[in-house]
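The pair is quoted verbatim below.
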Amino acid sequence: MRQLEVENKLRDVVSRIILQVELATSQGRTDINLALEDSFIPILKSVYNLPNLINLNRKQKNFPGIDLGDDHDRVCFQVTSTTSLDKVKATIRQFMDRAYYNSFDELFILMLTKKQASYSQGAITDILNGQFTFNCKKHIIDLADLLGLIAGLRLTAQERVLEEFQRILGEVDAYISYSLDSVAAPIAITSNLQHIRLPDAVYVAELTINDKDVIAQARKSLSYKGKARDRNSVVRMALLLNDMHTDAWVCHNNKLFTFHDMEASGLISIVDDGSIERLDVSDLADSLEVDNVNVLRQLLAAETRELLKTRHVRMHPVDRFFYFVAAEEGQTERREAWIGKRNAI
């Protein structure tokens, strides 16, 4: 049942992405692939088992001809919203002219909309001159092909890929909305709700909790009756069992990330104190690994949620917007003053 549900959700979200990309390209915004290059890295890492896959434009601005690459496994990708044979030929011609075959053994062209029914292998072979192998049926792929490969992954891996596709759909929607001609140019907005600054350091340590033990203890001590939906839920329960009521952390790859000194904040209760490491924020912000950048983004969101708790502001768990809650028990109406061009309530 769970397997079928994940498969249906994958088909639905991928279909919506394709439709939205087609909408963008029909409006002439074929640069949507630039906005999505990083987003596909976690998915391609899982599907093709490429742990060292990175955005090559991070190594060299506007890396010509190809977008993503794994130097270790010698595989690279071009991500495009254009599906014509001319686009394929242009990509391969650049690949050959720049002798990328010295660094990569395989080139895949990932098309964000439905690819053509067929491509002329002969036209491609003429460009290769016997120096490189490119099979149109294997190496030209679209999102439907990715879905077929994802079906061969373990269920937990499929669920992670589903989350990545859902993020991509959100980015596509945002890109289209932001790019519409009717959208006004960006303006500066100043709010006196909460001052946000980028901290100097990030602390990271290995988690020491046992999921089954935490859930069993939570059922006994916290009257918990449900099932843990993910690792974050288990970590949150472990903190509650240690009388810690904070959301200012991120869990990733069995590690806990936070802007706060773990010993001083009490987070040390669920981590290996010998594994605590202090990183500069720039270590994550400037990293070539998209996972590191995503951890920092999630950590900034988590810290913001925690800071706004004291102002009785919460984030909607689904729609992700912030909203005011009652500042005191029994309050049915809440008024807040702010200062713009004039005072207002």
Q: What stands out?
A: The chain has a mean pLDDT of 83. The chain has two domains: 2-179, 201-311. The first helix runs from residue 2 to 26. Residues 201-311 form one domain.
